[in-house]
Amino acid sequence: MEEVSDLEEQLASVSSEIQALGLQIQELLERQQLLVEKEQVLKKKIESLSADDGAGSSATSVEDWNKRDFPWSQKVDETLKSVFKLQTFRPLQLQAINVTMSEKDIFLIMPTGGGKSLCYELPAVCSSGFTLVICPLISLMEDQLMVLEQLGIASTMLNSNSTKEHIKWVHDEMLSKSSKLKLLYVTPEKIAKSKVFMSKLEKAYNAGCLTRIAVDEVHCCSQWGHDFRPDYKSLGILKRQFPKTPLIGLTATATSNILEDVKKILCIPKCLMFTASFNRPNLFYEIRQKPASFEACIEDIVRMINGRYKGKSGIIYCLSQKDTEQVTSSLQKLGIAAGCYHANMEAAAKTKVHKDWTLNKIKVVVATVAFGMGIDKADVRFVIHQTLSKSMENYYQESGRAGRDDLKADCVLYYGFMDIFRQSTMVVMENVGQQKLYEMLAYCQDSQRCRRVQIAQYFDEVWDSTKCNKMCDNCNSETSYEKVDVTSYCADLIKILKQAEQLGEKLTPLKLIEAWNGKGPSKLRVASVSPPNLSRSEMEELIVHLLLEQYLKEDFSFTAFATIAYLKEAPRANLLNNKKHVISMRMKLRSNKLDSSAEEVPEKVTSAPQKEAGNKRKQTSTAGKVTPNKKSKVPEDNPFILD
Q: Where are the coiled-coil regions (predicted)?
C-alpha cells in the first residue's frame, strides 16, 4: 500500500507539471499570435508607404489628392480664407476635401483636435444642396452649430426637442433647390426610427439636393468599438438607398479591425482610408496617484486650477452623474467657477452650461462622457480625469479636448485602486468592456514606457519615444525601478483566496488586502501567510499586476441594487505548482524596505487658513498624497503651459 501511495503522489506531481506546462504553452501561443498580428500591421504600413512613394500609382494614396489643380480648388481655397477665416490646411484636410468633392467615399482617421469637421463643412459650403451629418450627441451638434452660426453658414439640426414648425421648415428646405441650408445635423436614431424623415431624404436625393453624407464618430457603428450605438448599425441603409451620394466617415479612435467592420456595416467596402498620426505634440500626459479621500482629491485639483491653470479653461471628466454633481459643488465651494454637465440634466440647463463655458463665463465644465465628443473650444488648457477611463479610445478622445489651438496643454488622469473595480462593474456587460478596461489599466500601471509609445501601439502606429520631447510623465521622470520577484506574494494571495473559497466566502479587493495584512476575520487568516513587507500602494500595485497577468481574476455578483466585484484565483495560478515558475514585476526602487506595520495616514481635510501648514506635513504613503505624480518632475507651476 505504501508503494501505491508513493506512486499516486508521483502521479499527482506529474499531472500538476503537465497542467503547468500546458498553461505555459498556451501563454506562448497567445504571445505568438500577438506578434503575428503586430507583424501584419507593420507589413501593411510598409506596403502603404512604398505604394505612396512609387511612381505611376493610381489615385488612392494621400499624395495623389494633395493637389490644387482640381476644378473646385480655387473655390475651396477662397472659402477657407473668406468664410472659415483660416490661412492653411492642417495635415490630411486638403486631401480628404478633394476626395469627398470628387464624390468618392472616404474614412478619415484623425486625432481629436485635428480638424475633422472642416473636411465636410468646407465642401458643404462649396457645393450645391445640403450635407447630412450624423452625430451621436446633441452637445456635439450644439457645439458645431454655435461655430457655424458665428461663421454665417446656414445650418440646423433635428432632434427629439425640435418643434413641429421647425421640423416642417427643415423638410421644406431639404427639397428646395433655392435653399441656403448647407448642413443638417441629426442623430442616428433619426435615421433608424423616423420613416417620415427617411421619406424626405429620399425625395431630396431624387431632387439632387442631398449632396453628401458625413458620419461623425463612425467607430460607433461597430459592436467591437468602445462607444457602440445600436442605431449606428442602421446607417447601412443610407448607401443602399442613396448610392450616388458620397459618404465621409470620421473618427479619432478606431483600430484597423474596427474600421474593416464599419466598412461592411456602412456598405462601402472599397472606400479610401486616410489616417493621420495620433500624436498631439503639444499635450503633456500625466498619470497621478489618486488620493484616498474624495476631499484630498478635490483639494489637489483645486491647487492645480488655482496654480498652473489660473484663469484658464478646462474640463474635468467624472465616472457618474452623481460624481459630477459632487465634484462641481465642492469646486464651487472652494471658489472655482465650475458648471456641471450630464445626460439627465434638462436640455436648457445643459445648453446654458455649454454656452457659458464656451464664452468663458465659467472656467471649468465637470462632466460625464455625455459632454465632449467633437467639442471645439480651442483654448482648453487642461483635461482632468477624476477617475479611470473605461478604454484607451475614450481616454484618447476625451483628453484630446485639450490644446486644440496647438498651444501646450495638460492631460491629467487620477488613477486609484478602487476606481478599477467600480469601473469594472459598469462595463462587465459590454461586449469587450472588460478587455478594453484592462488595456486602459495597463496604460496607467506602466510607469516606464513613453505614454505616446503606448498610445501608438494601441492604435497600430509605430512611434519613436525620442520624439516625445519629455511631454509625458514617464519620459520626464528620473525615478529608478527594480525588477522584483513577487512569486511568494502571489502564492500567499492564492492561499488566502483558496481558504475563503473553502469557507464559502467571497473577497472584495479591499477584504483581500485586509486578510493579507492579517486584519480581517480570523477564519480567513492562513498560518503560513505573514503580512507583506510592502506599503499599501505597493500591495495594490501588485494585485493589479497579477490581475493583468491573469493569476487573479474578477468575479461578479449581481444584486437588485448593485454589481459587486470580487477577486478569485485564475487558472494561470496553477503555474505556481511548478517550483521553477517565477513571477516578477518592476517596482519603484527603495533604499530601505518599508515597515509593514506602518499605517498609511490619509491627509486631513482642513479649512482654508490651515491648508498651507497642513500641506507641509510629510506624507507616509500615496494613500493621502496630494503632490504631483510620485515619478514626475513637473512642479505645481507647470512650465509646459504657462509660457
A: 4-31
The residue with cell 502571489 is 490
Of residues 246, 235, 279, the one with CA closest to residue 96: 246
The yes-or-no answer to whether 283-479+602-614 and 482-588 have a common fold is no
Q: How confident is the model at residue 395 (pLDDT cuts 50, 70, 90)?
A: very high
* Tens of pLDDT, residues 139-190: 778 878 988 999 999 999 998 888 999 999 999 999 998 999 999 999 888 8
Q: What is the CATH number of domain 63-275?
A: 3.40.50.300
Give the containing element (helix H, strand E) for 168: helix 164-175
C-alpha distances out from residue 281 to 380, 402, 452, Å: 15, 12, 9
User: How far, in Å, CA of 417 to CA of 394, rounded?
Assistant: 19
Distance CA 154, CA 185 (A): 12
471-523 pLDDT, tens digit per residue, is 999 999 988 888 999 999 999 999 999 999 999 999 999 999 999 998 878 78
Options 38, 43, 44, 116, the catalytic residue: 116
33 vs 25, 30, 38, 40, 512, CA distance in Å? 12, 5, 9, 11, 34
**Kind plus residue range of the DSSP H or E element containing 197:** helix 195-206
Residue 498: which residues within 8 A CB-CB, separation 6 or more? 569
Residues 368, 182 contacting (CB under 8 angstroms): no
Give the rounded distance of the alpha carbon of 348 from its chain centre. 28
* C-alpha closest to that of 508 among 526, 527, 524: 524
β-pair partners for 247: 213
> Under a CB-based contact definition with an 8 Å cutoff, are residues 493 and 516 in contact?
yes
* Residue 250 and residue 242 in contact, taking contact as beta carbons nearer than 8 Å: no
Pick the CATH number of 283-479+602-614 from 3.30.420.10, 3.40.50.12780, 1.10.10.10, 3.40.50.300: 3.40.50.300
Taking Cα atoms as reference points, which of 165, 166, 174, 91 lies closest to residue 406?
Answer: 91
C-alpha angle with apex 45: 44 to 50, nearest 5 degrees? 100
Alpha-carbon distances of 319 from 41, 236, 556, rounded to whole Å? 33, 32, 19
Judged on CB neighbours under 10 Å (0-12, 13-18, 19+), 434 is middle
CATH for 482-588 is 1.10.10.10
pLDDT higher than 50, residue 26: yes
DSSP state of 472: B
Check if the beta carbon of residue 186 is closer than 8 Å to that of residue 159: yes
Assess whether 203 carries a catalytic annotation. no
Question: Are the C-beta atoms of 234 and 266 separated by less than 8 Å?
Answer: no
Q: List, as one string, the DSSP characters of 49-64.
A: HHHHHSTT--TTSTGG
- Which letter does DSSP use for residue 598 in this model? P
320-349 mean pLDDT: 92
Place of cell 486584519: 519
Distances (CA, A) of 511 to 132, 321, 507, 516: 54, 27, 5, 8
Handedness of CA 497, 499, 504, 507 (dihedral sign): negative
pLDDT the model gives residue 45 = 60
Cell numbers describing residue 496: 488566502
User: Looking at this protein, which amino acid is placed at residue 503?
Assistant: L
